[in-house]
User: Fold this.
Amino acid sequence: MVTLEIDNQQVEVPEGTTILEAAKKLDIHIPTLCACTEMNHTPGACRVCLVEVDRAKSLVASCVYPVAQGMKVRTNTERVRRARRTVIEFLLSDHPADCNICQKSGQCELQAIAEQVGVRQIRFPVTDFSVHRIDDSSHALVRDSSKCINCLRCVTVCAEVQGVSLLTPEGRGFGSKVVPAMSANLADSACTYCGQCAVVCPTGAIVEKDETQKVWDALEDPHRHVVVQEAPAIRAQLGEEFGMEPGSLVTGKMIAALRKLGFDRVFDTNFTADLTIMEEGHELLKRLKTGGVLPMTTSCSPGWIKFIEHNYPELLPNVSTCKSPQQMFGALAKTYYAEFAGIDPAEIFVVSIMPCTAKKYEAARPEMCDSGYRDVDVVLTTRELARMIKQAGIDFTNLMDEPFDAPMGQYTGAGTIFGATGGVMEAALRTVYAVVTGASMPDLDIKPVRGLEGVKEAALEVGDFGEVKVAVAHGLANARKIMDRVVDGTADYHFIEIMACPGGCVGGGGQPLPASNEKREKRAAALYMDDSRVQKFRQSHENPSIKTLYEKFLKEPLGKKSHTLLHTHYVERSV
Amino acid sequence: MTTEKITRNDLRTIKGNVESARRLSPGGNVARVTVHMGTCGLASGAGDVMDALLGEINNTSVPDIMVRSSGCIGLCSREPLVTVETVNSEPVIYAHVDQAGMQKIFRQHIINGKPVVELALARGLAVNETPPLKDNKKNGRIPHISQIPFFGMQKSIALRNRGLIDPDNIEEYIWRDGYSALARALTELESSELISEVKISGLRGRGGGGFPTGMKWEFCAAARGDQKYVLCNADEGDPGAFMDRSIMEGDPHAIIEGMTIAAKAIGAHSGFIYCRAEYPLAVKRFNLAIEQARDRGLLGKDILESGFDFDISIYRGAGAFVCGEETALMASIEGLRGTPRPRPPFPAVSGLWKKPTVLNNVETYSNIPWIIKNGGAAYAGTGTESSKGTKVFALTGKVRNVGLVEVPMGTSIGRIIFDIGEGIPDDRKFKAAQLGGPSGGCLPVEHLNTPTDYEEITKAGAIMGSGGMIVMDQDTCMVDMARYFMDFCQDESCGKCTPCRVGTKRMLEILERICSGEGREGDIELLEDLAGTIKDCALCGLGQTAPNPVLSTIRYFRHEYEEHIRDRHCRAAVCSKLFSSPCQHMCPVGTNVPGYIALLRAGKIDDAYRVLSATNPFPSVCARVCSHPCESRCRRGQLDEPVAIRNLKRFITDNAKPDRINKLPVTMPEKIAVIGAGPSGLTAAFELKKRGYAVTVYEEAPRAGGMLLLGIPEYRLPAQILENEIQRILDTGITLHTETRVGRDIQFEELEKKFDIIYIAAGAHRSLTLGIQGENSEGVLGAVEFLRSFNMGEEVRIGQKAVIIGGGNAALDASRTALRLGCKEVTIAYRREMKDMPALEEEIHAAIEEGIRVKTLVGPKRITADKGHVTGVELVRMGTGDFDMSGRRKPVPIEGSNFVIEADTVISAIGQIPVLDFLSSTPDVEISGSIINVDRELRTRHPKVWAGGDSVTGPKMAIDAIRAGRVAAESIDRFIREGKGEKPLNPDEDGLIEIPQALEEEAYEMKRTAMPHADSSVCTGDFREVETGYSQTMAMAEAHRCLRCDTEDTGSHR
Assistant:
């Protein structure tokens, strides 16, 4: 332990602690900007967290400077305040002054810090932003490099958390900017569109492509029958946008809000999550029985799909051919539901609410139009939906709960846990076990696949098959660890669940900000609570609406119609 | 050559073998020729010289001659250099050798044994390597290397092998005792003993940081780790620094040996040299050296059978300046983007791949073998208290001897520049030296005595850095220089941290706007503020030091920043956005020089006269006596010589027909008095008259003209010429009262009552006294008084032998006048060196030509007299000491060197002061020292009194006085009119004269046209003008030399 003095107060902390952490123990708040301690990102680059240390020649960055015995630190002197102010003044001089119309307004960390340190003027020339610097080439994300403050968080999340290493600093001096490798457009790059960069970006330099206006237009159009689906994670996140505690389960309020917005039908992606289990579970069984390519991996995370297409194209046969629940929903909405409701599928407009930015890209993939139309018309993130609710003046927190519409609104606990890492695996194993053994698992909770550990493994005795070995990874850097073992043959799994985002969909690129592991855990807990306490059924094959779907429309899992509407293929892409 | 692994004993054998192989003898090798082929030599043509040498050897049947190449010997400005050694005679170093020179050296020296004296730089090989032979008549005219300050004042430790060995031959390194220190380190000394030896030596990191090397090693040795690294920083990136390259090219084994010793000290077995890829020759020689060392078992496993393993590889950097920063360098070796990491952890604990690492630079390592061989104490015996040993400086910029110099720490900057570097070419004025490159600062004249000591240099506002020393003269604009370095740092910033990425850009933008004439009040303070923050906040050394050049230039040259911002004036005529042509910019009254030269070329000589008289009422006077600052920055000077602008002006004034002058009307009620009818007073009077004021001028002398009349002899300025110009001024309707001394004939209080405004332009008419014994003897005169008496036609008694004491224009005028008055022996005694004389250079030359003796480095001690009459001057010889505030050497009397020059006349010309007793009862007009205090607009604190000219500045040039007159008139007019809510008047606004367009033509080298002189044999009483003026042909030829720098933006003259 090391004892030091911060602002004349003694504090004892373990060796290796940074000044910033030590100050926190004394409830001294030092502003930071580039640091993102959760992913161990402290490049010491922004120079906002500067403090005075006795005998140090210059100010030091408290986020990286380790404490030492007897050290004397001052965090609130004129020298420190002046330095912080000037540093922020520098950043603001190279940042567009369009805060009021910025998508990140109100959630921008630079804005907040400028207010905190008290910058009231910029005393020198400012950058000319007349040159267009916006990359809106992709379907999912918009990069505005003029708003980049070189905190390098996106570089770290892209490389360390996601193992993609696409974003990189380029150039020198004032011209240095973070760009996709080789200065490519996002659309022409190996970007997975996972959106984790947008999650960690302190400013509006990387944001989701806002498509709320398209939805407003559709809702206004009398010739459109607008239906909406919401991913499992939304009900555990949306409340946060309205000041509710992380982990608040707001399913009923969400449905009520969507109705108020004017959607003609409010359905649920959880319904097709159950359907995915039916198809994917049977696909796994088929592979197990027929000696198909193993291990099989899940396919519901579009970021993961793009990642494997770029990075492990030789492993594409391992990926389940099942479409994601979003795309299964879209294909069925314009076929099954159109038939059911007697509506011309051309008039049906499918909107998804997703915790994900890559879903925007997935919906736009050219092969995703098996219904004869583009299966999903617009994908909104949780943040975009919250914006619409606010624009509509809806008092979200005081809404009365409402139920989903039929025939695509009913779901089981298995469907809902899709939103957390390990959820798909757990749901699939419940059904596979039941299909193979004809009985439910004695305990439906499969704890080893839950939680935020990067790579999780489990083995389960499944009747005649004996032991089924599974692995779960979330965050693409963890996916890489498993896939490297698949490549070199040391992974003896049968089934692997991979979610592109840390924590799974509850940590998606479209989640409410700011993000943290603590919030991810609370959201996941809400979903497990939905599964164990709220839902009547906890296994996908028990879902009555799914049974009806198979009886009336699909006939059987992996059947002909399923093959056409619910399964897909993948594309080899270069890095 | 064997390639077997060697032992410690083999080192001695190899040394002996090389020694005997090198021996020259009539039967064996009769000569050894070394062509110095560092990058500097090769760039200057050393390769061709080598070819020429080999060609000569092939074409001639000669006995055996050893031909070899070697690294640079440090004197880069004299490359290509060749050393010739022959049997039984001293080696000779030749400079500026070309192919023809090499052939001549071969035939004359190598074959026939007669050194080519005209090409020879020095005899001897290196200082202390070959002491001069006592009696060597054959080479007698060639100075010995130790007698040449460039070499003699150096002390070689880091550069001990420079130019002496073939870098591609490891055996030559061993011959110079190479690897003996390593042998000792590996077999005799413990790691702790090595560290302690380095600590005793006091060696500090030579890369710039100056961290004690021994301490760094100690930290690393103490750090826990299975794997440790020794790194060498060879990423030399400071503009103007090239010592590391030179060592790598000339003595690569010294670095290998140093690194291996470091490896033993800290327990490392692997090392990297990080070298910029722009140093291909260094990399090549280094790779070869590594290979040879490995072959001999001096690198690799079981070095010298000691059981110690160490190996080195080269990592080539892509040339990012920031990779000189240690953590960025390590990131780069790791294959990452070369950006710095926050410290701690320090590299000694967690460096390359997070392993304990020692990083030192090339120069540091090359000192190590010497220290281990000779002991740390021997190294510490040189240098200052806190800075031990020697330091290599790369001396560049405006200095005669550009090159590498290694001097004992503590050697003053002035001695390096003026003794070793031999000063500034063309004896121009030293302005500042930039130390430490873009991270450093500049030191001005007042710091020439600063010793090269880490702490002293830092105190003065610069840093030792890696030892770059860039010398700058008056042609450097300090604001532009700061802008350049800021631009460099901004370009080379890695962009990681905010202050360095954005802050340096903002500072650069502010500097850019100052340099382009858009500076604002407050910019200097803003720069200081930003600089302070950036220094305090940046992540690494690059950002923390990037503002240093700005801070040090503001500290020492704040006035230049202010001139740029307030006056839009760049005294170095560098910031071209501030002016249209440098000559016009440098002219104190802004005369449109290119305009009148163009008109002269076009044959419009009367228009040319109108242009030059528009800003100057004394064109003919200035055409003769002006100090022509216009010529000082003439762009033509960069090609050959400046245009002879004053001579062209003379041609115009001699040949033009001036317009008739009409009396100007009085339109303003204010009455203005001017005290003094010199150039300043008359100019003010003229300009005020043009603006409609009634002006009365009071002059003590019987005639107007001031110092122009009283101080300047007729042979330089004929009285009639001056009178004509004064008359034109007076013809505008100015009232002149001569023989009216204010304070005697009319009281100042009376003027205060009678006039609304008073302009004091009283000049400086009293000679300073010498303050020595015997000064009151008869025959001792003041120069001003002497010249005035003569010019006023009074009887002046001058003897046969005159001594004039001083070195300014008054001394020259007095001496040449004395000569013309029949004095037989005229001697000027000046206490400094000739180049320090403040007089115009052409005046000094003319005086010497006329037979005046100039004795320099002598100071007056006493006037000897007999019966009250002077008989001589006792002088003492002066040596040169430290540098004074003017950047000149302080003359220091040499004890016991006194001698007497016989003289019957002694004229004191050591300076003049104004006579201001008439102001004694006017306290509002402040006087400090002997001059009047005024503000920028020449206002005194007295509400109605302005002052200008010599009485404000002390003695200066005529054109400065004329400028003061103009400034005062404009200021007075502005004061009066603005007081009434009117705009100030600009009387020159009308009368546009079309300036001919410049013609597109090629400029060929052509020296300036000399001014024809009357016969230089002076006879008594002959005061005819010496300069006779250009002919038409000469004037046209000279006018054609003008490059018309003005034409980019203006074609007409206002």
User: Anything to note?
Assistant: Confidence is low (pLDDT under 50) at residues 1050-1054 of chain B. The longest strand of chain B covers residues 869-883. Chain B touches chain A at residues 320, 322, 337, 339, 341-342, 344-345, 489-499, 501-506, 509-510, 513, 526, 529-530, 533, 535-539, 544 (CB under 8 Å).
